[in-house]
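Hey, quick one: can you model this chain's 3D structure?
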Amino acid sequence: MSDIRNKEAADQLLGALSEQLAASGEHYELVVIGGSGLLALGIIERATRDVDIVALHSDGALDRAKPLPEALRIARDRVARDFSLPPEWLNPGPTDLLELGLPAGFVDRLERRDYGESLVVYLASRYDQIHFKLYALVDQGPGKHEEDLRALSPTEAELVAAARWSRSQDPSDGYAQVLRGALTHLGVEDARLGT
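Sure thing. Here's the predicted structure for all 195 residues.
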């Protein structure tokens, strides 16, 4: 398996991760965004290469996931070996989003999935995924991010809210210019984005 093709494959990998954690007496709660989260929510059907962890969840609080705790990294690597996946199939790449703040109310909108006793995965809501996907579209360009964003079927109001949040991540004039172009491309004509 070189990528995660569908919800069933994602569930299989996370179930295997839970088994590895259970074997070593560990328990983790992960907050996931990105393509694998959209697969799990049934919003997209495209394959994705990895599971993006934005945070570790503990008693309602979010902590940075970078670096991954050693026990979680060891369990991840065993699953990678067993399923012929790249080592970074489970990664904390987006955890830097915590530094400047996630969308207001993010934790309250998380959707919980339990994988046995040793792993809980919280999925970012559709509303929050719109924020992340718009930011990724503007930051990294079209392609899968635009496809994912369109699959989320955002309203104009949701896109404007996402745009305003994304300015907290990158307040530069260059970003604002590209953002306005992306919004126009997505059908939003007159967004007041603030600074």
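One thing worth noting: Residues 127-185 form one domain.
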